[in-house]
Amino acid sequence: MLRQQDVGHRIVVRRIVGIREGRPLFSDALGELVELSETHLTLATAQGQLRVPVAQVHRAKRVPPTRRPTAAAVVALERAADEAWPAPTRGRLGDWLLRSADGWTGRANSALPIGDPDRPLPAAVDAVERWYAEQGQPPMINMPLPLAAPVGAELDARGWGVRPPTLVQTTPLPVAEPADAAGEHAGTAGGQAGGWGSAVVELATAPSEEWLAIAAGRKGGLPEAARHVLTAVDQVRFAHVYADGTLVAVGRGTVTGQGRWLGLSLIEVLPVARRQGLARRVIHELAVWGVSSGATHAFLQVEQRNTAAVALYQRLGFTTHHTYLTRVAPVG
Ligand SMILES: CC(C)(COP(=O)(O)OP(=O)(O)OC[C@H]1O[C@@H](n2cnc3c(N)ncnc32)[C@H](O)[C@@H]1OP(=O)(O)O)[C@@H](O)C(=O)NCCC(=O)NCCS
Description:
The chain is α+β, with helices and mostly antiparallel strands. 26% of the residues lie in helices and 36% in strands. The strands form three sheets. Strands 8, 9, 10, 11, 12, 13, 14, 15 and 16 form a nine-stranded mixed sheet that branches. The chain has a five-stranded antiparallel sheet with strand order 4-3-2-1-5, with no helix packed on it.
């Protein structure tokens, strides 16, 4: 049967889907294990997410990866993602990164355990715990899978908690044109004269105060360090979409990783303006800017349970490159 160490790996599950003439009927599913609980397991399959009750599982096992990125590719993308979301307070443990930003977002306030920490694993985790205690913050570790799986076993033994899985998704650039998004949805938004199709995506080198207010709403406040995280990247653009003078959609694009990677973050559309193609247009404009800046690929990080965003990115051609789990030390 499967164990927590299998999360992030490709597995095959034979499940019982019915009984005919007293015999079980089986169906096989293949995909990446994104979550394993006592009652269910969740697979990311080529057809979408599949949640299987453990009671229905006849057999389940790991299978060799197909088209899995190399460890070097995961490391390179994780480093590009770190550059794109730079924590102002940083430390190192050998190759491992230690990051702190007034607690603003998990990514900027967690250790990144890739490479060699220059000491045995238990001593490395001790050092992470000490560093975060000095910052007055709960120790967190962001674990790209399966690269950091051995670290996971050490954290399990220490009783560290785990947050829901995040998918790191990528696509080659350019992204698909939002097929006449303006025309397709124009006039269909409830109450918005002329629809949102006429709204224009503006890319600015700095976020407006309204843009920051949306970011604050989404991420729970905006400490001083957050401005650093958002703006301290050489190549960065802030997408603003106004309709009738109101900011209705935002997004952020960065180019990092020696110019290869367009990073997309804080894609957000006000509830009243959703399903009108605005997110697609924001991403398209940021992608056009990314290409003009030399980027060849785009990446983003999305919680696997964020079904709306996962559907949006799938529609745009993004696929999962790898998964990460944020681990949090037990209180006290
Ligand atoms: C995710 C989000 C940005 C989508 O914005 P949007 O402007 O509504 O998306 P679009 O209208 O451009 O959608 C394009 C396609 O994505 C998919 N999609 C978007 N929202 C979806 C939803 N709620 N359910 C299923 N599919 C969805 C659909 O395929 C859609 O095309 P369609 O409307 O023709 O079916 C928006 O729901 C949002 O702001 N959510 C909260 C913030 C957030 O989660 N951001 C992402 C963080 S990674």
